[in-house]
Every structure is written in C-alpha cells, then in structure tokens.
Amino acid sequence: MELKIENLTKEYGSNRALDNFNFTFTEGVYGLLGPNGAGKSTMMNIITDNLAATSGRITFDGEDIKKLGPEYLKQIGFMPQQQNLYPSFSGLRFMYYMAALKGMKKKEADEQIPKLIKMVNLMGHEDKKLGAYSGGMKQRILIAQALLGNPKILIMDEPTAGLDPKERIRIRNIISEVSMDKTVILATHVVPDIEFISKEILLLKKGVLIGHGTPAELVSKVVPYVFEVETDREGLEKYKANYRIGNIGSSATDNGKFIVRLIGEKKPEGEVLEGTRASLEDVYLRAFED
After folding, report:
1. What three-state secondary structure class fits 11?
2. Distances (CA, A) of 233 to 152, 238, 240, 264
3. Which of 77, 79, 161, 271 has the fewest CB atoms nearer than 10 Å to its CB?
4. Strand partners, 250
5. Terminal CA-to-CA distance of the chain, rounded, Å?
6. Are 9 and 55 in contact (CB under 8 A)?
7. Burial track 166-193 (b if 16+ CB lie within 10 A, e otherwise)
8. Is 223 left (phi over 0), alpha (psi -120 to 50) or beta?
C-alpha cells in the first residue's frame, strides 16, 4: 500500500500554505509535526479530498486519487479535532449515522460498530448522549467512527489535544493498535504524542517539509546542539539572548542556581554539564522556535 504525494502546493492568494510537498507514505504511523499555521491541516484536507490543491497530485497504489474518486474515499478514515459532535445523539446513534454517511450497509454496520465500541473502551457508554461525554470519550468515539468501513488510510488531526495524561496514553495505545495494517497520518504540535508510536516523523514549517526521519534519527542530528548548564538569574538572561531555552529547573544542590537546557549552534562558554541527552522536544525547538 502506497500513498504518494508529488509536488503538492496550495495557495490562498499570495499566501502559500503548502509548498511543493513530496513524500511517500506506506503502512505505519507517521507523525506530522509543526506549529500552528505550518500547513498540517491543509495537507490533510487535500489528502481527504476536502480541499483542492493548486498544483501537484496524489496517487494511491499508483492511481491518481482524482480518477479513483469514491473508491479512494472509501479507503479514508478521518478523525477531525474535537468539534461539531451532535450533543443530543447517543454514541451508538452517532456511529450508525456516520456508517450511513459512509454508505455502509446495515448488516456491515451491525457487525463493526460493537467491535469498534469495545476497541475504544466505550462499552456501557454507547447509550449516553455525546453532550455528556468527557473530552477523552469524545476523542475515542471519533477514532471509532474513523475506523468504520476498515479504511486503509487513517488521517488524525490533533487526536489528543486538551486531554489529561492518562487519556493521551490511552489514545496513543489505540492508535498503535490499529496501525498494523494501515497508513496513519497523525498531525500534532504536541511532541510526546508521536515520539514513541511513529514509524517516521515529518517536520513541516510554513508549508515546507524541512526534514523527516525516525524519532531516533531526528534526535541524533540535534545531539551536538543541546547543552545543560548551571547558572544564576543573571547568567540565565545572557543565555536567553543567544540560545533557545528548553527546561529551567532548580539545581540539585539547592544553591539558588538553575539547571538550564540550551539549544544552540555553538557550545556555551563555561562548564557544561555531562550526560545531557537530546529528545524530540529539542528537535522541535531547534526546528521551529525563532
């Protein structure tokens, strides 16, 4: 299975939201990482055929998606950000409503819906109204509806936005579980959401693909630019002028100083603490923070 994007560009007047994007997706989870306004939602809306590109094309297993038409759309499951749910619908009614919109036969929906409700751990809650669902429950029902019809491509827009740590972990585990025979494209600006489940991460900045690789590959590239130092408040202000600041923590010696994580192009003057390990968060700061 292959979803290939070639020279994809989207312009809104003089603003180029997506700029000559090229990438080939196969099975597995792909994290699309970038700040707000990077072009993530634009790309997902083009992939799902909700938005027309200015130029470029997308092929699915070698066939142009425009020629495939409805046959391609049957292979897409889309999980939007948490919005526009029908508060008076029960979870079960919502699932049947979405199945009908996808053109599924009732027999097929009857078979799939109970299994999907169980997969997202909403048994016993399917008769409750969506308006009474917690944030995590709403996200889980959105995952369930995206999986109706067993699509080969799953597009997820900020699936863990606004959730507490426990629900975020639950959602990430569900995504990992369903990704074994699908292509999952997960757009977010929350780094931990994709650090441990992504086969590959794409860095998108102002519509341009500025880098991609496995989490380990991306982290290895930023290692020479990550440092930790112990400093006082005056020193901290000096570092702020020349480095991106990651974490600021209290010193273990409780001497009134700070342990500061720096991301920059050159090693800071003075003593640098040993044993500093880079992370995907450092990759994000170096790639996107001005």
Report:
1. strand
2. 53, 9, 11, 19
3. 271
4. 258
5. 38
6. yes
7. ebbebbbebbeebbeebbbbbbbbbbbb
8. alpha
Among 140, 51, 60, 62, residue whose Cα is nearest residue 95: 140
Q: Could you tell me which residues come within 8 angstroms of residue 222 by beta carbon, excluding any fewer than 6 positions away?
A: 263, 278, 282, 283, 286
Distances (CA, A) of 242 to 233, 237, 259, 285: 15, 9, 17, 14
Q: Let me know: does 20 contact 56? Beta carbons within 8 Å.
A: yes
CA dist 79 and 159 (Å) reads 7
Contact 127, 100 (CB under 8 A): no
Helices (H), the chain: 40-47, 65-68, 70-73, 91-101, 106-119, 135-146, 165-178, 192-195, 215-222, 233-242, 280-288
pLDDT digits (tens, 9 = 90+) for 21-67: 999 999 999 999 998 889 999 999 999 999 999 999 999 999 999 99
Tokens of 86: 């029908």
Q: Which residues pair with 257 in a beta bridge?
A: none
The pTM of the full predicted model, rounded to 2 decimals, is 0.90
Dump pLDDT digits (tens) for 130-146.
Answer: 999 998 899 899 999 99
The per-residue DSSP string of 59-104 comes to EETTEEHHHHTHHHHTTEEEE-SS----TTSBHHHHHHHHHHHTT-
Q: Is 248 left (phi over 0), alpha (psi -120 to 50) or beta?
A: beta
In the numeric block, the tokens 């690789």 are attached to 213
Please report, as a single letter, which amino acid is at residue 130: L
List C-alpha distances in Å: 269 to 45, 227, 230.
47, 11, 12
